[in-house]
Sequence to fold (634 residues):
Amino acid sequence: MLRAVGSDVAFTVLSLADQLPGLQIVVPLVGAIVCAFLRRGTVAWVVATITTFALPVIAFGLLREVQANGVVSYRMGGWAPPFGIEFRIDLLNAYVLLLITSISAVVIPFAKKSVAVEIDSDKHAWTYALYLLCLAGLIGMAITGDAFNIFVFMEVSSLAAYILIALGTHRLALLSAYQYLVLGTIGATFYVIGIGFLYSLTGTLNLADMTSRMAELNLLDPPSASLLAALAFIFVGLALKLALFPLHAWLPGAYAHAPSFITVFLAATATKVAVYLLVRFLYTVFPAGLALGDVPLREIVLALSVAAMIGASLVAVFQDNLKRMLAYSSVAQVGYMTLGMALANEAGLAGGLVHLFNHAITKSLLFVAVGAALYRMHSCRIEDWSGLARKMPFTMAAFAIGGLSMVGVPGTAGFITKWNLAIGALELGHWWLVGLIMLSSFIAFFYIGRVVELAWMRAPVSDLDDARPPPLSMTITMLALAIGVLWFGFETTFSLELARDAARYLLARGAL
Amino acid sequence: MSPALEALVASYNHWITIFLMVAGLYTVIAKDNMIKKLVGLSLFQTSVYLLYLSPGKILGGTAPIIAPEFDVYSNPLPHVLILTAIVVGIATIALGLALVVRIHEAYGTIEEDQVFAAGDNE
Fold:
């Protein structure tokens, strides 16, 4: 079912509900401009908070619209697709939009104190402006139905992210930002090369139109060499953006050296949107994209996912810096998401998609706890955390809850993911894969357990006099996320059910 | 001219694109100097401009303004897309160079191996 929204007639009365897709992107952009004109950091934070709180409301409205009436098609500027840019929202990206906007709204209260201590005061307003730009770019990537528009939004979010990472206190932040800039640009350029091939082949940039043109022009059976080249370029480009092992080199440095709030924000949203785009291309834009021609793409994704789950988890065990440890853990967790994609059955794909959400809340809880500890004691070396639970019991309890979810203990959000992935693997008869998922969880238990044991059981070795419970704004964020991690371990209407609906929707389009 | 050579010459625009693409990517990977890396990155991006623009030109075609004398028009859309891509490319390179300036202030060098050799422990 398609509903055309937009201004066909010049004097159409603007209904707010019809303009939700436009507002979803316009609101954060306007917020960013307002922040850029402000000088006081606190005022900019208030603007950023109000803006961010408005976004999940819009995303929720869009989701209800999609659930009630099917795909929403919005003509940007009133130009009809396929010539104009179309914002196209279906069950998959309605879910992704709700995810990134609500996580941003939960973590923005944490920003105030964290930014205040980690970034020079003359740059606070700019920081919030860039944060909103980055968020607008990510939302844009998720909402648009135009292949080139995705690239533009990708660069909007990436350029803002490079600057935000470079704001870190240590000089290594500059180096990490530079490396991310080089690799991120290569990734985006690979994506544009792929889109260039697709455009030459089909003569259109609208994703839905592209798919129908591929069939009309007989490009699919057998797949033309140019089409396979396009798929290869897009796959590698997006794999770089989502930090699929072994293309994850930029991620640990970027997460480890960025200011705490930026790490929380990027870890919760940036890679998720790139994963979404890969799902979009492999499941809808390329019909049966995972099984196109003789390319064993499905096996490749499966192998890389498993390598990430095991390899990156092992590397995480040997880190001294907490942020870096959690960053390697993020590389491993991306493996779970792409694993679900490669399983390509309902349970598996739903497991992969729900992990976008479950990992977002789990990892942001862990990074927020690290940020709160860093705020009080100015160190994220693991050994300095020895005995910290005596001074910051709530923060360390939050870290432990996040850790349990990371391991996948029943009753936490992480368990829901692993259970569904395991069912998906069993449906395909892959017993060994269930074993590998268990092994990866076991390694996670090691690197998380090491920190929890140190904080709770050991006596302090370093001077912890400064350490005391974090400020209220940080506690609120931590509490909300910790409740979320436990809540979504039991009540899965807004996570698993939505992911399942999206998975069914994708598989109905003939994924394999 | 043999048919193979003819095919080679006929698609010369693609050869130039591929050469620039590979040369740019090689420079990014092989060079230690951070500014040279950015030069390579810029070259790599520029190759994509050609990739888009050259198929958009139709031989004998004119600008897409409807007039009775003309019936063959070139496709204007690739130009518009690449105008956007050029702006993105400029922003990226400018930001990259700004970061290199800051790295030079912080480390006193822009050679990647020397920066790594500075041996920062976080």
The interface with chain B takes residues 148, 151-152, 155, 159, 162-163, 166, 170-172, 174-175, 177-178, 181-182, 185-186, 189, 192-193, 196, 199-200, 205, 256-257, 320-321, 324, 380-381 of chain A (CB under 8 Å).
